[in-house]
Each structure stands twice: as C-alpha cells, then as structure tokens.
Protein: Aspartic peptidase domain-containing protein
Organism: Lasiosphaeria hispida
Amino acid sequence: MVLLPLYLVFGLFLSLAGASPISGLSVRDGSFTVSAKRNPSYVPDGRAEYARALAKWGAEVPAELQRYVERVEGQSGSVGAMTISGDREYLTSVGIGTPPQTLALDLDTGSSDLWVYSTETNPVDLSNHTHWIPANSSTAKIVPNATWEIQYGDSSYAYGNVWRDTVTLAGITIPNSTVESALQVSWKLSSDYDMDGILGLAFGLESQVSPSQPTLLNDLLLLLESSVFTADLKWRAEGAYGFGTIDPARYNGTIQYVPLIDDAQFWQYNFTGFNVPTANPTETQTWYLSSWSAIADTGTTLLMLADDIAAIYYKSIPTALFNSSIGVYQFPCSAVLPDFKIGFDGHPGGAHAMVPGKYINYTVLEESTSTCMGGIQGNYGQPFAIFGDIFLKSVFTVFDVGNKRVGFANKTLT
Ligand SMILES: *[C@@H]1O[C@H](CO)[C@@H](O)[C@H](O)[C@H]1NC(C)=O
Ligand SMILES: *[C@@H]1O[C@H](CO)[C@@H](O)[C@H](O)[C@H]1NC(C)=O
Ligand SMILES: *[C@@H]1O[C@H](CO)[C@@H](O)[C@H](O)[C@H]1NC(C)=O
Ligand SMILES: *[C@@H]1O[C@H](CO)[C@@H](O)[C@H](O)[C@H]1NC(C)=O
Ligand SMILES: *[C@@H]1O[C@H](CO)[C@@H](O)[C@H](O)[C@H]1NC(C)=O
Ligand SMILES: *[C@@H]1O[C@H](CO)[C@@H](O)[C@H](O)[C@H]1NC(C)=O
Ligand SMILES: *[C@@H]1O[C@H](CO)[C@@H](O)[C@H](O)[C@H]1NC(C)=O
Ligand SMILES: *[C@@H]1O[C@H](CO)[C@@H](O)[C@H](O)[C@H]1NC(C)=O
Ligand SMILES: *[C@@H]1O[C@H](CO)[C@@H](O)[C@H](O)[C@H]1NC(C)=O
C-alpha cells in the first residue's frame, strides 16, 4: 500500500467524476464542471492522469489501471488478408510467442477460439503445416488441466491443450493470450495445407475452452484505441484487416450501421430487403421487403441465403439449375450473372450493398462440361443467412464491438 500526497488523491476525484466505473475503483456517477477550462474540447481522463502520476511518484500502478491506460493510449494497426485458391479463404500472418513465430491463420468472425498446429499435434494431422513450437517461446506457459474442443458448422473439428503466450497481430502485441494447441485435427481442416490455425473474432461468444478463458478479442479490445475492427477483403487479391481504427482510405460514402440483434453471440443483425433483377431488363426490378437475420462471417466462403431467397435469385438466370445430387446451384460458366443487392434501411432502393454478378460466379464445378458453381447458395433451413466472403469482399465492413453494430460501406470493386 502506497501513501499518496494529498493533492494527488484530490486530483483523482476531480477528474474521475462522470467516468464509468472500472473494477477495483468505485466511482460516483455524476458530472463535474470545471469553470476555468482553457480548452473546451479537452476531455480529461482521470485514470490516465492518475496512472501517470503514480508512475511519476515511483508508486506501483495497479495492473487493472495499467491495462486501462494502455487502452486509452490505444493502439491500432492493419494486416494483410491473403487470398487462397480463388478466394476459398483469406489468411493473415499472426505471430505466436517470444520471439514471434509466424503462422498463417484464418481470421474468423464466426467463432471465438484461437487454435494452432503445434509440436503437440498428432504428426498425421500436422503434415505440412507451419506450427507453433512452445519450447521456443520464452513466454509460453501451459494452463494446467484446461482443454478445448471445437466443432464447426461444416462438422470439421479439432481439440487439444490450452496455453498462454504473447500474440502479435497487426503490429499489436497482446501478452498472456489464450492459445489453443491442437492434439488432433479432423481431415477436413488438416487437408487445408495453407492454413496453420484459426483466430476467432466472434462477438459475445465464449471460446470452447474448459474451464472458461478470455478470448483473444477480450484481450485485444483492452489495447485498442477504439473498440472496432474492420475487414476489407478483395476479389482474388490481397485485402486487409484493421484494428482499433476505421481507415477512411478504405471506403467511400457513409458507413451504413445495422444494430446487432439482442443477446447476439455472433455478428448477427437483420437486413431488410433484397433486389433481384429480372432476366428481362425492360421489366421492373422487384425489391423484396421483410426482415431477415444474418451473420457476418469472414470464415465462410459463400453467401448462404434462406433457401427461398437463393431460389428467387437463380430464377432470374434461365440457364441456372439446382443440382439435387450435390445440393448446389450451378450454371454454365459462360452465363452472365446479375448483381444481387441487399438493403439495410427498409426502403426499396434505399441504402444497400451490391454483390457484383462476377463475384457470384464462384468457381468451376466441372471442367469437362464447363459448369460453374454459384457463390450464393441456400442455407438448408437455418434460421439465419451467412454473409460469408462472397458478400464481404463486395463491401468494407466495420465490426463495432463498442456500439454492438456492424457497418457496411461502398468501395471501388475490381
Ligand atoms: C508437403 O510439402 C512437400 C514439399 O513442399 C511436398 O512435396 C508434399 O507434396 C507436401 N505434402 C502434402 C501432403 O501436401
Ligand atoms: C527451436 O529452438 C531450437 C533450440 O534452440 C532450435 O534448434 C530450432 O532451430 C528452433 N526452431 C525454430 C523453428 O526456430
Ligand atoms: C490437475 O488435475 C490433476 C488430476 O486431476 C490434479 O491432481 C491437479 O491438482 C490439477 N491441477 C490444477 C492446477 O488444477
Ligand atoms: C493471464 O491471464 C489469466 C486469465 O485471465 C490470468 O488469470 C492471469 O493472472 C494472467 N497473468 C498475467 C501475468 O497477467
Ligand atoms: C430479425 O429477423 C428475424 C427473422 O429472420 C425476426 O424474427 C426478428 O424479429 C428480427 N429482429 C429484429 C430486431 O428486427
Ligand atoms: C450434378 O452434379 C454431378 C456431380 O458433380 C454431375 O455428375 C451431374 O452431371 C450434375 N447434374 C447436372 C444436371 O449437371
Ligand atoms: C466464371 O468463372 C470461371 C472460373 O473462374 C471462369 O472460367 C468463367 O469465365 C467465368 N464466367 C464469366 C461469364 O465470367
Ligand atoms: C453505395 O452507393 C450506392 C450508389 O450511390 C448507394 O445507393 C448505396 O446505398 C451505397 N451503399 C452503402 C452500403 O453505402
Ligand atoms: C473512392 O472513390 C474514388 C472515385 O471514384 C476512387 O478513385 C477510389 O478508389 C474510391 N476509394 C475506395 C476505397 O474504394
């Protein structure tokens, strides 16, 4: 316990008034006006000033306060999202350990676990993956008796041990992060030789670690200048993720924000309309207006809409068909696809995002017959659509944790 000079304590109370409580400090919620303010736009931050005063006077800064201050003097950064095999996935270089060991991870807004291949992984599953060597990291520490086990929506799975180590993402150093090390990885995941693990960034969802541990997003938010991250994925090109700030050079016009649904465990929001051009351009275009729930998921390749919406889209392409033996919409590769517009403000032709037809021609399904597969598919009766990469590369997306909302903006598409 350190005794403080009296005026410091007084200063603390002055500047803390009106601030929200942080744990360990009880703060009265009220407002305090200082009559002789020189700079009206200067907003005092009592906690930062307190920490600086403590440090200056040689006192120990409480850990919680230090974390808060690091957030106030917050960081931001951006990092590339490399496209893999025709936009099947996007991978980002992430450093694990001290010194950082660089792995190519899939940043996934649809899950909350950070797991990697490691020296603990079954050699059969490890094959060619770059993997984490905890023995080579001076900051790696195993969490005794903690385990993790995850099963993704496509029935792939992985499980293993839990560690803590420093993670370096977009130039931001996140100490003491939960790092899940794989013992076993299902073939569906391990046969993706490009990907060395997954870094989950879901909203409000606990990781699959038992007993419960903080997620990377929990730890990262404490360090950021602002509680946001952004995704700027690109069609067959390298895009970027940004953390702690919204880079105005990455979009045009205004950002259309949509609130997350109550108790969201993912980046789940409602969109309120969609537009499908008719095959005959002289016919009037139809806007369908209602409310549809959707999840923004960087870790999913396709745009998976309610089955009836997908059917409506493909009805506008005379040569498209639903191939029931494999359960996908397909069309001749020569087909020119219409754009698909998704509305956010409940008005036909109002604020909307546009997915170019070119992006909806996802990949060749059968070389011999020159058949292609659609980037829009049905969601097999799930209660929400999944706005995967086909959609996300068409827009600039803001994942706003602080304000519980997702934002979409236009950018020039190639
Ligand atoms: C592993 O990498 C080697 C060398 O790059 C390559 O020859 C081999 O085919 C790869 N194995 C698999 C399963 O991809
Ligand atoms: C890990 O550390 C060992 C022992 O210091 C060293 O020989 C090896 O090269 C390191 N491996 C990597 C991938 O850095
Ligand atoms: C881990 O589990 C073992 C066996 O159940 C137990 O003896 C040990 O105390 C546990 N360690 C911790 C840190 O919980
Ligand atoms: C690391 O994080 C864990 C889980 O939040 C916490 O219990 C532990 O005290 C932290 N260690 C350090 C050195 O901050
Ligand atoms: C979101 O859409 C779903 C239907 O998909 C609807 O049941 C729900 O009421 C909507 N929520 C809001 C807040 O509009
Ligand atoms: C449906 O897909 C299967 C497997 O790719 C293919 O053999 C078949 O020809 C397709 N059907 C049509 C009508 O194209
Ligand atoms: C659709 O995509 C395939 C595979 O990338 C490509 O070969 C084909 O030319 C594309 N079709 C059109 C109309 O652009
Ligand atoms: C993108 O620009 C178009 C044309 O100006 C506009 O109608 C649309 O609402 C914009 N979309 C977003 C998400 O701002
Ligand atoms: C914004 O619009 C200008 C003019 O059309 C264009 O040159 C620029 O590339 C756009 N910026 C982005 C990030 O799309």
Remarks:
- Residues 83 and 90 are 5 Å apart (CA to CA).
- Residues 1-44 have pLDDT under 50 and may be disordered.
- The longest strand covers residues 172-185.
- The chain has nine helices and 25 strands.
